[in-house]
Amino acid sequence: MYPHLFQPITIGHITLKNRILMGSMHTGLEDQAQGFEKLALFYTERAREGLQLIVTGGFGVNEYALGMPEHAEFSTLCTPEQAARHRLITDAVHAEGCHILMQVLHVGRYDHGSGGVSPSSVLSKLSSRSSRELSAAQIEQIIADYVRCACLAREAGYDGVEVMGGEGYLINQFLAPLTNFRTDEWGGDAAGRSRFALRIVQGIRAAVPENFVISFRLSLMDLVEHGSHWKEVLDLARQLEAAGVDLFNTSVGWHEARIPTIAMMVPRAAFSWAAEQLKHAVSVPVAASNRINTPEVADDLIAQGHADMVAMARPFLADPAFVRKAQAGQNSAINTCIACNQSCLDRIFTRQQVSCLVNPRACREWEWPQEKAAAARKIAVLGAGPSGLACAREAADRGHKVTLFEPGIRIGGQFFLAQKVPGKQELGETLRYFEHEIQRLGIELRLNTTPDIDTLSGFDHVVVATGVTPRRSGIEGENSSKVVDYIEALRSPRFVGERVAIVGAGPLGFDMAELLTHHKADDGSVAAFDREWGIDPERELRGGIKASERADSPRQIWLLQRSKAAMGSGLPTTTGWIRRARLKNKSARMFNDVEYIHIDDNGLHLRIRGEQRCLSVDHIVVCAGQESHDPWSPRLLVHGIAHTVIGGARNAHKIDAARAIEEGAELGRKL
Ligand code: SF4
After folding, report:
1. 137/426 Cα distance (integer angstroms)
2. How far is CA 123 from CA 131, 133, 178, 266, 399, in A?
3. Using a 6 Å cutoff on CB, does residue 340 contact ligand 1?
4. Which of 36, 117, 123, 245 is the most exposed place for a label (fewest CB within 10 A)?
5. Which residues pair with 483 in a beta bridge?
6. What ipTM score was computed for the predicted complex, to two decimals?
7. Are 281 and 238 in contact (CB under 8 A)?
C-alpha cells in the first residue's frame, strides 16, 4: 500500500525506508526530572511501529532560550552532563532501527514571562512585555550556543539536529521585517536579516561530521504582516542548502498569526502547494507539514510532487502504530488525529503535560502498560457515546467480554451530531475507528436496545455511560414553538428560520452559530479557505497574506450569554480565537451581560447591558448547557449490581469529548 510513502529516501548520509517524519512536539515531559525515561518510552513505542525518523521537541540552546528558567536543567542542552541524560532516548530509539534528530530552539520574543530577546525590541501578541534588543556581542554568543548545543546533541547520540527557523521563533524573528528593524549587519536588507540563520547553520556544519544531519525548519509563509517575502524565503533556502542543510522541514504561520494552520477547520494538506515550490528551488529533500493526518493524503502529496516527505506530529499522539497500519493497508484501524488541539496544544499553552483526546494513553505510556486483565469478566456498558465507546474498547482490549448497549440506532451519541458542524467533519474519523475496534475486539454491540435489570444482573460489572441531556433555559415562555434545543437544531438545521437568537455562548453556542451561519460557498476547499482567511496563493505580498473576504451567512444570528465575561473566553486557547473571528466575519452579533426577560410571539425580550429590547426572531436555540442523564444508578444500587458511572452521566459540568474519552478509557483499563 501507498507506494510513494513507503519508498526509501536518503537524507544527508542516512537512508530511510519510508518518507514519514514524526515532527517535533513539546510534550511537557522534557521539563520533568524523570522525563527522559518517559520520553524514551514514548518515542520507542512509535519507532517500534515502523517510524524511521523522529524529531524531538525543542531543546533550548542556552539557559534562557525557552524562557522557562525553572525547567532549564532538563529542557535545555548546554553541558555534557545534560547530554548524558539524552542517551536514554537515543539508545532506545536506535535499538528499534529508527533515527532521531534533536530540535535546537531559541524562542526569542516568544518568552511569556520576561518578554525575551529579539533582534529589535517588539511586543509580541503572545507576551505582555516587549522583548529586549540583542547586542551584536549577544548575537555572536547565541550563535555559539546553537553550535555548542548541536555538538552536545551529537555527543548524546542523535543522528542530527533540526534548527527551528520557523513559527515565529528567534531565527524567524531575525528574518522578518516585522521584528527586525536593525540597521547593522544583522538587519536591514534580506542579506542582513538572513545572516543569523546562515551563521548558525555554517557554524554547526563546521563543527560536526558530514554524516550528522542538519534539518532546517523553514517558514514558507509567515502569515503575519511584514513577514518574509516568498523570494526571500527561496533565496534563504538556497543559501542554507549551500551552508550544509540536508533537509527542509517546512512550516507555515507564526504562532501569533491570526490565520489558522493546524486546526480542524483547516482543509487537509492545505499548505502542501507551498512546499512544492520550494522543492523546485533546492536539491535536498523537502518535507510538507500541517494538517496531514491520513496515509492517503500523505501518499497523494508525494505522488503529486508536492514534497519528498511528510512531517506529521499529532497523528503520532493519536496512534503510535500509524506507520505499521498504513503500510499494511489497515486504514480503518488507524486512530486518526482529528486536529482538535484539545489535549495537546491547548495543554502546552497552559503548561500542562500533553496527551491526546482520542488516545489518552499518549505521553502516559509509562503509567499505562498495555496488559491483559488477570481474569476476563463480563462487562455491560450502557451508552455508546464517547465515554462508553472508550471504556468498551479499553476493557475489551484487556480481555474482558464486553456488551455495549445503545438505545439509539448508531454509535456516537452527541459526538455523532457534532460532526455536522462545519469544520468538524473529522469527528467522523473517531467514530470510524471505534466501529473498527468494536469489530476487531469482538465487542457485542446491541443498538436500539435498553436492557432490563435481569439482563444486567448477569454481568460482573455495569458501566453507566448514558451521557447528558440539554439543559432548559428557564426563560419565561420557553415552551413557545419558537424555542428549540440544540439537539433538535443540530438534527434539522434546515427547519431553523432566518433570524435566530442563540441562548448560551459556550462551546455549544459557538458550534450552533457556526452551523447556522454556514454558507454553501464555503465548500471546505483550500481555495475557499484561502479566500476566507486572506491567504495569498501567489505569494506576491509579504507574509503571504492579503485582505480576507467577508463571508456570507444565510441567517442573521444573535449569540447571547448571561455572563459579563468576554464572548468565547471559555473556548479552548488555540481554537477559540478562530471561532470568534469566523463569526465576526459572518456579521454574527455577539452580546454578553444579557438578562433574559421572556419569550412571546414577538420574539425574545431581554436586557443587554441594562437596555431593554426585543429581538424579533424566528427561533430561539437553547445552548444553555447540559445535565447528567443517569436513569440507571438507583436501580442498579437497589439490585446490588456492581456499577460505575462515567463521563457526562457522572458530571455534566464542562463535559467535553476529551474528558468523556479519558474517563471511559481510564475505567476500562482498571476493570
Ligand atoms: Fe490530534 Fe486532538 Fe489528539 Fe491533539 S488532542 S493529537 S489534535 S486528536
Report:
1. 49
2. 6, 11, 11, 28, 55
3. yes
4. 123
5. 620
6. 1.00
7. yes
Q: Does the beta carbon of 357 sit less than 6 angstroms from any atom of ligand 1?
A: yes
Per-residue pLDDT, 411: 98
Collect all residues with Cβ–Cβ distance below 8 Å to 366 and sequence separation of at least 6.
37, 38, 41
Query: In this predicted structure, what is the pLDDT of residue 229?
Result: 96
Report the nearest atom of ligand 1 relative to the CA of 339: 7
For residue 83, how far is the Cα from the chain centroid?
30
Please tell me the predicted confidence (pLDDT) of residue 158.
98
318 lines ligand 1 (CB under 6 A): yes
Give the number of other CB atoms < 10 A from CB of residue 89.
25
Of 396, 329, 322, 407, whose CA–CA distance to 359 is shortest? 322
Give 358 Cα–ligand 1 centroid separation in angstroms: 7
| d(C-alpha 106, C-alpha 617), whole Å | 53
For 422, the 3-state DSSP assignment is: coil
Predicted pLDDT at 465: 98
3-state percent helix, strand, coil for the chain, nearest multiple of 5: 35, 20, 45
Q: What are the average pLDDT values for consecutive 10-residue runs of the chain, which has 671 residues?
A: 96 97 95 92 97 98 88 92 97 98 96 89 85 97 98 98 97 98 97 98 98 98 96 97 98 95 95 92 97 97 97 98 97 97 92 95 94 96 98 98 97 94 96 98 98 97 97 95 95 95 96 94 90 90 88 93 92 92 93 96 94 96 96 97 98 95 97 94
Q: Distance, CA 242 to ligand 1 centroid (Å)?
A: 37
Name residue, grid cell 536593525: 182
Which residue matches cell numbers 503520532?
A: 316
180 CA from centroid of ligand 1 (Å): 34
10-52 pLDDT, tens digit per residue, is 999 999 999 999 999 999 999 888 899 999 999 999 999 999 9
Burial annotation 107-118 (CB, 10 A radius, 16+ → b, else e): bbbbbbeebbbb
Tell me the three-class secondary structure of 120-145, residue by residue: CCCECCCCCCECEECCHHHHHHHHHH
Query: 420, 393 in Cβ contact below 8 A?
Result: no
Cell numbers placing 2:
501507498
424 lines ligand 1 (CB under 6 A): no
